[in-house]
Amino acid sequence: MGMMSEFKEFIAKGNVVDLAVGVVIGAAFGKIVSALVDGIVMPIISILTGGVNVSDWKYVIEPAKFGADGKEVAAEVAIQYGALLQATINFLVIAFVIFLVVKAYNRLRTPAADAAPAEEVVLLREIRDSLKK
Question: 73: helix, coil or strand?
Fold first, then answer.
């Protein structure tokens, strides 16, 4: 079987289309949750921290140096941990929301517990039980 025919078979299965749709929807959903975090969660955190933007938090190792004319001679050396914290909060919120969506989807997808087993299952159970005797 040639590579092109394998590729056509792979594409024809439909899983690729489902995956592509999932990726596109996931990217759009990520933007929505990022907007939620940037527009609602982070301003609340900013209020709690005295109006400081979390993404601006940093640890200055060496401050910027300025010349006599006021121009910057050497740039500031700093560890900008606020951006990492912001990205981590974004990730955690997105992961939690996706978890909730998948949990709701799985709840809708599972069959009802009181549904009777299929006829084949009943027959197989009878065969199993008779073989045990």
Answer: strand
Class of domain 3-132: mainly alpha
Phi, psi (deg, nearest 5) at residue 83: -65, -40
Measured in degrees and rounded to the nearest 5, phi and psi for residue 81 equal -80, -15
Region class of 88: left (phi > 0), else alpha (psi between -120 and 50), else beta: alpha
Determine phi and psi for 13, rounding to 5 degrees.
-65, -25
State how far the Cα of 66 lies from the Cα of 58, in Å rounded to an integer.
20
Which residues share a beta bridge with 72? 66
Provide CB contacts within 8 A for 10, sequence distance 6+.
16
What is the pTM for the complete model shown?
0.54
pLDDT in tens, 4-43: 888 777 777 767 777 777 888 888 888 888 888 888 888 8
Tell me the backbone φ, ψ of residue 32, rounded to 5 degrees.
-65, -45
The enclosing H or E element of 72 equals strand 72-74
